[in-house]
Amino acid sequence: MIPYTAPMTARRIPVIDLADAFSPERSRREALAWEIHKISRDVGFFYIVNHGVPQSLVEGQFDWARRFFALPAASKAAIDMRGSPSGYGYECMGAQALDEGSPADLKEGFQFGFDIAHDHAYVQRGLLRYGHHRWPQDLPGFEAHSRRYYEAVRALSHRLLSVIALSLEMPEDFFEPVLETPIATQRMLHYPPQPDGARNNQIGAGAHTDWGLVTILAQDAIGGLEVCNAEGQWVSAPPIKDSFVVNIGDLLQRWSNDLYHSNPHRVLNAGTVPRYSLPFFQDGDQAAVVACLPTCCSAERPPRYAPCTIGEYLDMKVRQTFGVVAVD
Ligand SMILES: O=C(O)CCC(=O)C(=O)O
Ligand SMILES: [Fe+2]
């Protein structure tokens, strides 16, 4: 368990203008890749602006999040994620402790993912995060809008990972095969204000790293996200208009042989009104093998991790963080 301490004044999370990721000129894409390289080796977190996802789509998804969480408890309970082999659907308050060993997070959520044919072998086998979606019956329009938002952000994750591949001196399309049938999860989260009587170390989202390749997070105007920087200081990541927060996940850290950092972060809603956020996790195909990239190892820096599949790694993390503790 990572004890909660107040964030210290420290460096800011950098803002990257992503426009050059869409440039036809390779030299511009390379210059951007180098910027991302430097940041990914240090703090592993950055904001992106000019990312191509229309702001109206983001705002619309926040509106749906507010409407979803305002549904009667029974409507949400009817689509509890524990009733789905993939783990999609409603995550009730107290279902997860992101900081292993801490009390449960003070958040509730909803998650859905890649639109995959029901007869696909992954779905038939009941694998984590493939199919078996659970949408509420009493919220018409929610699924359609969420799908539009999802596809825009998923496309952005492809673009980002092409720049990230370049930043690791790999071909720009290196990750494409890994992204064809992905575990790519959109979560919607609702954090009530931090209660006065919260248990020791119980906050909105306990300190954790993200598990996959990259996370693309939209947060509302309330604030509360904090990131642990390279010196171990907690830095606030306040909302910046029209931006997403991007961070490197554990699988990319493993793939890059610890060159890139999957940094711990956490959430505490210190405000007086609810906070909503929309994190999208691009984790890649469950069957893909994560093994040190040739550009990230040498005689002096041999591979630090045994190869593993993406599915194996994520299964382990889900087992560690869900169903451990309940909120009282
Ligand atoms: O809500 C946020 O700002 C971050 C959520 C998060 O870190 C997560 O779900 O992994
Ligand atoms: Fe996270």
Summarize this structure as a short list of keywords or feature phrases.
328 residues, alpha+beta, Jelly Rolls, eight-stranded mixed sheet, four-stranded antiparallel sheet, 7 helices, 26% helix, disordered C terminus, binds 2-oxoglutaric acid, binds fe (ii) ion, 2-oxoglutarate-dependent ethylene/succinate-forming enzyme, metal-binding
Brief overview, please?
This protein is α+β, with helices and mostly antiparallel strands and about 325 residues long. It is about 25% helix and about 20% strand.
Q: What small molecules accompany the polymer chains?
A: 2-oxoglutaric acid, fe (ii) ion
Structural class: alpha+beta
Assign the CATH class. Answer: Mainly Beta
CATH architecture: Sandwich
- List the uncertain runs: 4-10, 324-328
Name the helicity range.
25-40%
What coarse outline follows from CA principal-axis ratios? globular
The figure for the number of domains is: 1
Side-by-side strand order of the widest sheet = 1-2-10-7-12-5-4-3
Number of helices: 7
Largest sheet: 8 strands, mixed
Give the SSE string: EHEHHEEHHEEEEEEHEEEEH
Radius of gyration: 19 Å
The overall strand count is: 14
CATH superfamily: B-lactam Antibiotic, Isopenicillin N Synthase, Chain
CATH T-level topology: Jelly Rolls
Strand portion, in percent?
Answer: 15-25%
Termini gap: 20 Å
In round numbers, the mean pLDDT is 92
Task: Characterize the structure shown.
With 328 residues, the chain is an alpha+beta fold. The chain has one domain: Sandwich (Jelly Rolls). Helices cover 26% and strands 20% of the residues. It has seven helices and 14 strands. It has an eight-stranded mixed sheet with strand order 1-2-10-7-12-5-4-3. The longest helix is centred in the middle third of the chain and has 26 residues. It starts with 14 loop residues before the first strand and ends in a 7-residue tail after the last helix. 45% of the residues are buried. The C terminus is likely disordered. It binds 2-oxoglutaric acid (AKG) and fe (ii) ion. The site of 2-oxoglutaric acid has 11 residues, from strand 5, strand 7, strand 11 and strand 12. It catalyses: 2-oxoglutarate + O2 + 2 H(+) = ethene + 3 CO2 + H2O; L-arginine + 2-oxoglutarate + O2 = guanidine + L-glutamate 5-semialdehyde + succinate + CO2. Belongs to the iron/ascorbate-dependent oxidoreductase family. This is 2-oxoglutarate-dependent ethylene/succinate-forming enzyme.
